[in-house]
Amino acid sequence: MICQATAIHTEPFFPISLPLEGPADFDHQRPHLLQAARDYLDHYQKIIRELHQAGAGGRRVVADTTHMFDVLITTLFEAVAADLNQGRFGKCTLIALGGYGRLELNPRSDIDIMFYYSGRDRAYAEKVSERMLYLLWDLGLDVGYSVRTQQDCLDIVEKDVTARTALLDSRYLAGDATLYEGYRKEVLTVVFGRNSQAFIRAKIEENDKRLQKYGSSVYLLEPNIKEGEGGLRDLHSALWVAQVKYKAHNLKDLVIRGVISERERQEFEDALDYLWRIRNELHYLTTRKSDQMQFNHQEKIAEFLGYQNSRKGLAVEQFMQDYYYHATRVEHLSSSLIARITQQEKPSTHALGYLTRRQIEAGFYILRGELRVSGPEIFRRDPPMIMRAFFLAQRHQAPLSLELKGLIRDNLGLINDKVRRDRTMNEMFFEILRSPRDVGKTLRVMHHLQFLNRYIPEFGRIFCKVQHDLYHTYTVDTHSIFAVEEVLKLRAGLYRDKHPVLTGLAGDIEKPELLLLAVLFHDIGKGEGKDHSNKGADMMPTIARRFGLNREDSRRLEFLVRHHLDMTHISQRRDLHDEDLILQFARSMGMSENLKMLYLLTFADLKAVGPDVWNDWKGMLLQELYEKTYQVLEKGDFELEKRSEKLRKRKRNVLEALTEEFDPRMVREQLRALSPRYLMSYRSAEIVEHLRLSLGRGKRTLALHVEHETRRGFSEVTISTLDIPGLFSKITGVMAANGINILGAQIHTRSNGEALDILQVASSGGSIENPQKWQRVEEELTAVFEGRAQVGELVAKRRPPAFMTERPRPRFPNRVDVSNEISAQYTVIDVFAHDKVGLLYTITKTLKDLGLYIGVAKISTKVDQAADVFYVQDIFCQKIVQEEKIAEIKQRLLTCLDDG
């Protein structure tokens, strides 16, 4: 048993001597028994829930729930056996197993019981179990059961590690007490004693598989409070291993045997109490047993626990930050205990050098492959030696011993502002960052031991910090360390084939340690609320002074943190063919080194957000922005280039390439219809292909060409047709109807009335290379353009039926921003909305109805949140400047988004 239960201080709803009506046989009494049991459960479940809602701790509710079922089950057992003639061999005892055996029942937990009988009493045991189980099932209870003899139990001890584990938590409930005593001596002795090393290895293997299934990171978006890392099962696994190793039945036994301290016992009990309280509420919230804390559950649990929205963040974010903090403590408690046990289990068959103490410098030595210290006073005398421990562990590739980890944790309080400014300590930290190996591993250990929180107090403010959305998979601190590891992978050449430009830059940075600091600190302002880029940047001068950085490095660190979102924002949501925009961005960079480091930081930030956030389309946009900006920084402003000469040369090249295929007069007419902006946006070879498509269309309604960028994960679709009102809206509708996601769009309307729309599209699996699909798209586009099909009807067929409601997710208010400052030619509309089928069609149709023409569309989706941008003009090819019209645009778009 893991804990000691406290009973409900009330009399059982019905005593063992249940008054019977009519004949005494079970069949006649069963309806009365069942009704009495129902009344009992209804009564006491209500009382326990009220206790929970009034603030009772997790332990109290779990203990009361267990006691309630003990009274029910023992009473039922005696009632079902009352009219059976036990005779000489009629012996059966009822034993609680698993969580029920540990006295740990939550409101909707399974009830695991075993009917244990002597080998000759099978018929009796089966009759009792049959009567009992049907009663429990009729009461709507989830019951796990078995009917076993001594030999059955001994057989499963050898074969089934899960069943053996359940027997570890055995507890007598009812029936023949003498038989249970025999079970305790003959079975439990074997359960605890036989083949303990094999059992411990099997449990650790089982533990690893569980974490692979339910998530091996504490910081999952929707953690499983029972099976996930940092959950109840972590504590149980450690305690099971300890029970078998030390033949202990509970935490108190482990203290008596000197395995854990009284403080550790209290930490285990506090951790269980915290998790039980949350699990109790989760069980009450759900109509079925559930241990997954989904987003809507998190919000309700936060409210139940009394969290409130504040400057620190949303109530749910504060709750989850506390939950993740407790989960890290649970993981530390359980892994430390298991490590302590497995260290003793390791066979001593290693080479002699492995078992020999090797002194590496004063106060530090390596034994059994682990770094150790000569005594606990080393840190008290000289606190910067804590950093020395991490430095030596990295240099010698020797992990910190369990004792050394505990010593570091116990001495974190020694790290004050004077220690943080210690020159030797800071130099060692920078040496760790400069090292060619194990930088990420070392930072992870520093983070796990909460050393980073003490050494860099500002980093402590983002410890376990949560962002309540589907986009950010990890807590802010973990994301920051993952981002550092992405830069290290570039530096090590692991991305050489996929990202050659970035790999080259990573090896070319003057001060790689400064870049790693910027990556580690880029989100540090999130501990202070909104506008985290500026708040984080404002912290950099203080941190830099503490580290002893010079003024230039301090300013660069501040610059990188302040601007770490710029490249993502511009590449994904702004027109990269806008020369003024590129020029303005280049000026903000100041010098090439800033641009290079910001590019690397942006890549690392996106890669570390979550598994599905980075894609090659975003990578291509980032690289395009980097290369265009770098060219400006190295060669000067666009104005320095001979723009008019460049345009004339480009037209000559196109004319020469197409003269043999088409009438030169027709080619010249097409060239005259092209805008200077279009001509500057594409290379000569691309313009040739566009005009070849347009000239080859003849009298057909449209010509469509698809190129597949398989390695980059998207397809590019070029559509040539005559311009008609709402053309782009019709195109987006047909794409939505065919399950095609639009990533970006460039819309070109020529002065001769022709339209050329270029779209980058993808499906969930990347590029779309099914020729039948593209044939269907072409047919549907033609039908829509010719008025033979209604695009709205096509989209409606694609939408899921109303009864297929999606699971509740965090939702943010729809937002529309309109700006005339971003582009010299266009009004720019930013739309933020919850993504759904046909969203882009809905928006573009509304823009068409408003009389607006779209020149550029940038489509970006963060998991379930769309951030779409439209560069628009009115019918006179002018910006929209009237305040009333801008207000109408906002209102109409918000209405269409809300109405769906």
From TrEMBL:
Residues 476-592 form the HD domain. It comes from the Bacteria. Keywords: Hydrolase, Magnesium, Multifunctional enzyme, Nucleotidyltransferase, Repeat, Transferase. Pfam families: ACT_ACR9_3rd, DUF294, GlnD_UR_UTase, HD. Gene3D superfamilies: Beta Polymerase, domain 2, cca-adding enzyme, domain 2, Nucleotidyltransferases domain 2. GO terms for biological process: regulation of nitrogen utilization. Uridylyltransferase (UTase) activity is inhibited by glutamine, while glutamine activates uridylyl-removing (UR) activity. SUPFAM superfamilies: ACT-like, Nucleotidyltransferase, Nucleotidyltransferase substrate binding subunit/domain, Poly A polymerase C-terminal region-like. It catalyses: [protein-PII]-uridylyl-L-tyrosine + H2O = [protein-PII]-L-tyrosine + UMP + H(+); [protein-PII]-L-tyrosine + UTP = [protein-PII]-uridylyl-L-tyrosine + diphosphate. Residues 716-801, 828-900 form the ACT domain. Modifies, by uridylylation and deuridylylation, the PII regulatory proteins (GlnB and homologs), in response to the nitrogen status of the cell that GlnD senses through the glutamine level. Under low glutamine levels, catalyzes the conversion of the PII proteins and UTP to PII-UMP and PPi, while under higher glutamine levels, GlnD hydrolyzes PII-UMP to PII and UMP (deuridylylation). Thus, controls uridylylation state and activity of the PII proteins, and plays an important role in the regulation of nitrogen metabolism. This is Bifunctional uridylyltransferase/uridylyl-removing enzyme.
